[in-house]
Amino acid sequence: MDKKNALRAGALAAGTTLMMLLMSSPALALTRDDGDDPGPGLSVVQTLGLYVVAPIALFVIIAGLVMVLDKSKIRVSKPGRAKA
Questions:
Q1: For labeling, which of 5, 33, 51, 76 is most exposed (least CB within 10 Å)?
Q2: What's the confidence (pLDDT) of residue 1?
Q3: End-to-end CA distance of the chain, in Å?
């Protein structure tokens, strides 16, 4: 794709996104529905712990388990040696 077509595609995507944002209606989050009973809000520390620290910790735990439980052996072949 040449530069002109890429520029045209980018402009079209940006324009479409902008129009969708401008034409969308508000979420009406301030209007309570029947039966709506929100709980207490989270503090900044709780929010960071839930949405930042917990996913990173899960990733580290899973990656660590994969590395520890990996059964494959690392085979390094040195140049000049024939494979057996």
A1: 76
A2: 57
A3: 48
